[in-house]
Amino acid sequence: MKALKEKLMDSNAGYAAVFGKNAELSSIPAKKLAILTCMDCRLDPAEFSGLSLGDAHVIRNAGGRASDDAIRSLVISHKLLGTDQWFVIHHTDCGMEMIDNSNMGELLSESLGTAILDREGWKNLQRDGGSEEGKFINWLPITHQRNSILEDVKRIREHPLVSEKISVYGFLFDVKTGRLEEIKD
Amino acid sequence: MKALKEKLMDSNAGYAAVFGKNAELSSIPAKKLAILTCMDCRLDPAEFSGLSLGDAHVIRNAGGRASDDAIRSLVISHKLLGTDQWFVIHHTDCGMEMIDNSNMGELLSESLGTAILDREGWKNLQRDGGSEEGKFINWLPITHQRNSILEDVKRIREHPLVSEKISVYGFLFDVKTGRLEEIKD
After folding, report:
1. Is B39 found in the same domain as B128?
2. Is residue B175 domain-resident?
3. Is the Cβ pair A162, B137 closer than 8 Å?
4. Same domain assignment for residues A46 and A63
5. Does a structural domain hold residue B6?
6. Contact A170, A118 (CB under 8 A)
7. Cβ–Cβ gap B175/A25 under 8 Å
8. DSSP single-letter state for residue B136
């Protein structure tokens, strides 16, 4: 059986064979749009918002949070490449609602391996020696779905490096229906 | 003419109408894969590596860099959702090769608005008052395309919160051909 890496390289060879006119796309997003959303495997922002290759910057992290690094990326997106509409899209059933900084730190201090979630909470399958480093990180957990969207829009909106000319909108993507809902104050 | 937001909501309504069995997808990536890549508008990681919805976590930022926030996301990806193969994918003609920390800080201190690149370098179109904040940020510029991939793979590989059981691979995506090339030491 082929390993995952080889399978993906095979798929990519097929993609490259029909790449054609995509070679002419500009690095400047045609729709002047940047999307910040979660890394979740059930989300495909180009698909769920009907975008074509070349239309938008897509920034993704755990939770779709307005982390310092997301803001670094957004500021570059406007400053160097001219996007002026930014969509912050969180989603239902997000893993970031199921942790907090305390249990992430504890879990990682016992083991770096994958934990499982049962009725009593997260449990490590092994206790093979982890790292205390996890206790010094803000994992950016989400305690309230809609508030986290409003907070992230607000953080971006009020950031000293974000121009007033940029429009920032918040959305919730429902993983059970595929639907986007705008979330406003 | 409809505004961008309304157009995207219309497209999304069409997507939701045929969402169907996607509602049953697990939050656990079927291919146990996480991809870290650039926000660039010419990249669609699901397309160029032949992935389906539900297969992989996708983390994206300016440059596809192994920032602290990318590592936060990757560690969550393995610890809570079991991914064990991570692909770091940078690309040719990346905007991060065209800046350094010094000119980003200077440009932003003059204006928050979009700058243009000409033969003499980046220039602000306005000087309408920016912010000194940009001088205190590491923008994670790229000085050497292939080295930046190797450095990022190394940072992830050696991070105290990354399990030895995870495979980390580096790739370069060519925006002129659509082709992925593995980059190794």
Report:
1. no
2. yes
3. no
4. yes
5. no
6. no
7. yes
8. G
Residues A85, A154, single domain; the answer is: yes
CATH of the domain at B169: 3.40.1050.10
* Contact between A79 and B107 using a beta-carbon 8 Å cutoff: yes
Q: How many domains does chain B have?
A: 2
Q: What is the pLDDT of residues A79-121, one digit of tens each?
A: 999 999 999 999 999 999 999 999 999 999 999 999 999 999 9
Mean pLDDT, to the nearest integer, of B92-113? 97
Q: Which residue has the tokens 């909501």?
A: B9
For residues B73 and B163, membership in a common domain is answered with: yes
Residue B86 burial (CB count, 10 A):
26
Q: Which pair of tokens denotes residue A95?
A: 């893993």
Nearest CB to A62 within list B61, B72, B96:
B72
> Is the entire prediction scored with pTM above 0.90?
yes
Whether A123 and A106 map to the same domain: the answer is: yes
| Cα A34 to Cα A57: distance, rounded to the nearest angstrom | 4
What pLDDT sits at residue B2?
Answer: 80
Q: How far is B143 from chain A (nearest CA, A)?
A: 16
Q: Does B33 touch chain A (CB under 8 A)?
A: yes
Domain span at residue B159 reads 31-94+144-185
Of A8, A30, A93, the CB nearest to B50: A8
In a domain, B1, yes or no: no
* pLDDT tens-digit series, residues A134-169: 999 999 999 999 999 999 999 999 999 999 999 999
Residue A156 sits at the chain B interface (C-beta within 8 Å)? no
- B176 contacts chain A (CB < 8 A): yes
State the CB neighbour count (10 A cutoff) for residue A163. Answer: 18
Q: Is A48 on the interface with B (CB under 8 A)?
A: yes
Kindly state whether B102 is in contact with chain A, defined as any CB-CB distance less than 8 angstroms.
no
Check: CB of residue B96 under 8 Å from CB of residue B141.
Answer: yes
